[in-house]
Write a structure and sequence with these properties.
The complex is a heterodimer of chains A (about 80) and B (about 525).
Chain A (H helix, E strand, L loop, with lengths): L1 H19 L7 H52 L1
Chain B lengths: L16 E2 L5 H26 L24 H10 L17 E8 L8 E12 L14 H13 L14 H14 L3 E5 L2 H12 L5 E5 L4 H10 L2 E5 L4 H14 L11 E6 L1 E2 L4 E2 L2 H11 L2 E5 L14 H4 L9 E5 L9 E5 L1 H10 L1 H5 L5 H15 L6 H23 L5 E2 L4 E5 L3 H13 L2 E2 L1 E3 L10 E5 L6 H18 L7 E2 L15 E2 L1
Parallel strand pairs in B: 3-15, 5-6, 5-7, 7-10, 10-11
Antiparallel strand pairs in B: 1-13, 2-3, 4-12, 8-9, 11-12, 14-17, 16-17, 18-19
Classes of the chains: A mainly alpha (about 80), B alpha/beta (about 525).
Chain lengths: ~80, ~525
């Protein structure tokens, strides 16, 4: 049953997260506060990545292409 | 290829000790965990101060709020914010004799460990991996118990006096002669409390103008005794003979700090087995150093008496040395003999001096007669004088259990500290949440363990400490190992990355004493 073992594995991963960040020891309202804070931070980071990363990558790509393209043209003209 | 020389022939057998280094990722994650808990601790303290939450811990009275604060230091912060969350792993009430199996009263907490209530149920037959029951003499039936019951009906339970006044029974004289014979020393003296043996006798031996060289990880009783004596205390690194030699050289060359006079006495305080690390002292080297620099040695064999050595005579026999080389041999009856109290053994002049000048002899009540009889019977059993081979069998069973248990745990992949032959087995946990989780999960599986955190250990090196016993059968150990394996997989405790080789003798390296093959 792949789904069942997958669910067990995900539950085990969640337990490890709880143990490492000590949310295993927290009272329910503390856990709520902690998880809300974490999830908010994560959503904000992902949103920022979604908005800005494609623009950054395409700009960088264009920059390098322009640099290489210009160089190639220059050498061609000198030889001529 | 493993080396041959064992420190110039001082050691007759290989000395295998290992303290694996903390993995970097684990250390970082432990700090993350402590960081999160600290932040929540500040939040809860804030809420308690502003009365948003009910304050259940001790605070000053209203009239004393302007005085110097009593509960603001780190220890109290740790206590109310971290210790309270995992408090159910300690002070568990047991309701049977703490042998190989023990019964425990079940308790629940409805307000997150601030208060406990008993459900009324008794959890039976929990495998006991936490009691200092090394030779299995914590029994409620058998020769020791019968002898103690007979003495109880003869002498009663109370002594009602100190040793120097009316509390010196013939049982005490018999016990002291037996202890002296057991250890191979001229004379011995027994006291009612092991902690008090250390803390009340070191002040009688050293005073101002003397130097005490004490190991880094010495027990609180030795530290207290050293501080009470008023002597100068210098600390050497744990079990590190180069550090000890450097301190001795400096002491002889420079003398006392201001006046440069020679020290009146230099006393080296070491323990046989260190109970938090499971390491054994390097006694041959300490004795060689002591003889070279003409100082005295005080050996605290609380955990090693009865537990090490082919006939259970302790760490001196384990290394094949002579008891005459150790000036003061101290030990306790609590661990291997199943009783209470402590003893000091040595030359006759020393013990006669202590009989007059020790605080414990003058002010403390002497040992209770049934307890004395328990010690006498168990000691005779270990020495083989009761006519059976039970004692020898127990000592051998403990050695076998130790080797088996340690080998299996190391094979499973846990980080285990300490010497191969020590019956104290610390298993590293590191993260604070795992301290509480380990204790609870093992109790669910009917195994009782002792988990230790700050302040008994450094803050990131929390551990679970197993104490093996001759009363554990191989089936019990196998059950325990199976459950530890399961819990180790569940909580991801198998941090060890190395295969191990025996400790190499090499020049002093200040960074680490980890000896492994990558």
């Amino acid at each position: 049953m792949d789904i069942k073992s997958m669910k067990n594995y995900l539950y085990w991963l969640y337990c490890q997260f709880e143990l490492i960040t000590c949310s295993y020891l927290m009272e329910p309202w503390e856990k709520l506060l902690f998880y809300t804070f974490n999830v908010t931070m994560l959503v904000m980071v992902l949103y920022t990545a979604y908005i800005f990363v494609p623009v950054h990558i395409s700009t960088a790509f264009q920059f390098f292409l322009h640099l290489l393209g210009n160089q190639h043209e220059n050498t061609v003209s000198v030889v001529k | 290829i493993n080396h041959i020389v064992h420190n110039g022939g001082l050691y007759k057998r290989p000395f295998n000790e290992d303290f694996e280094e903390t993995p970097m990722l684990v250390a970082v994650l432990t700090y993350v965990g402590y960081g999160v808990l600290t932040l929540f601790g500040y939040l809860r303290d804030f809420m308690r101060q502003w009365k948003i939450e009910k304050c259940q811990n001790a605070t000053e009275r209203e009239e004393q709020k302007d005085f110097v604060p009593l509960y603001q230091d780190f220890e109290n912060f740790y206590n109310r914010n971290l210790y309270m969350r995992i408090r159910d792993s300690w002070n568990r009430p047991i309701c049977s004799v703490p042998g190989a199996k023990v019964d425990m009263m079940e308790r629940v907490s409805h307000d997150y460990n601030w208060t406990f209530t008993y459900t009324g149920r008794v959890i039976k037959d929990i495998i006991n991996m936490g009691s200092y029951n090394y030779l299995g003499f914590a029994q409620k039936a058998g020769t020791c118990q019968e002898a103690a019951a007979k003495v109880l009906s003869q002498y009663g339970a109370g002594v009602c006096s100190t040793r120097q006044e009316m509390g010196n029974l013939d049982k005490h004289e018999e016990l002291e002669k037996l202890v002296a014979r057991f250890l191979g020393v001229e004379s011995a003296m027994a006291y009612g409390m092991g902690f008090a043996t250390n803390s009340m006798n070191i002040p009688a031996l050293v005073g101002k103008g003397c130097l005490i060289l004490s190991d880094e990880l010495n027990h609180a009783s030795l530290v207290l005794g050293a501080r009470l004596s008023g002597a100068t205390i210098r600390i050497f690194k744990h079990n590190n003979m180069q550090s000890l030699e450097k301190l001795l050289k400096d002491a002889i060359v420079h003398g006392q700090p201001r006046t440069r006079r020679p020290w009146k006495k230099i006393l080296i305080l070491v323990e046989g087995i260190y109970s938090m690390e499971g390491s054994i002292v390097r006694l041959p080297e300490v004795i060689a150093l002591k003889k070279k620099y003409k100082s005295y040695l005080y050996l605290d064999e609380a955990h090693s008496i009865g537990a090490l050595g082919p006939t259970g005579r302790g760490v001196v026999e384990y290394f094949g040395l002579s008891p005459e080389d150790v000036d003061v041999m101290m030990g306790t009856f609590t661990k291997s003999f199943g009783a209470a109290g402590g003893y000091i053994g040595g030359k006759k002049e020393l013990i006669d001096y202590l009989r007059t000048y020790s605080h414990s002899a003058v002010y403390a009540t002497s040992l209770s007669p049934p307890v004395v009889e328990q010690i006498i019977t168990s000691m005779k059993c270990i020495m083989g004088e009761d006519g059976t081979t039970v004692g020898k069998a127990r000592v051998q069973q403990l050695a076998e259990n130790t080797r088996y248990f340690r080998r299996r745990l190391k094979e499973m992949g846990f980080i285990i500290y300490g010497n191969e032959d020590s019956p104290v087995v610390p298993l590293m946990l590191y993260m604070p949440a795992k301290i509480g989780a380990f204790g609870r999960e093992m109790l669910k599986r009917n195994i009782g363990v002792v988990v230790v955190g700050f302040p008994a250990t450094p803050i990131i090196e929390s551990r679970a400490r197993f104490c093996l016993s001759a009363a554990h059968t191989k089936e019990m150990l196998d059950t325990a190992l199976k459950e530890i394996n399961e819990v180790g997989d569940l909580l991801q405790l198998k941090y060890s990355r190395h295969r191990l080789v025996p400790l190499l003798d090499r020049p002093f390296d200040e960074t680490t004493y980890e000896e492994t093959e990558d």
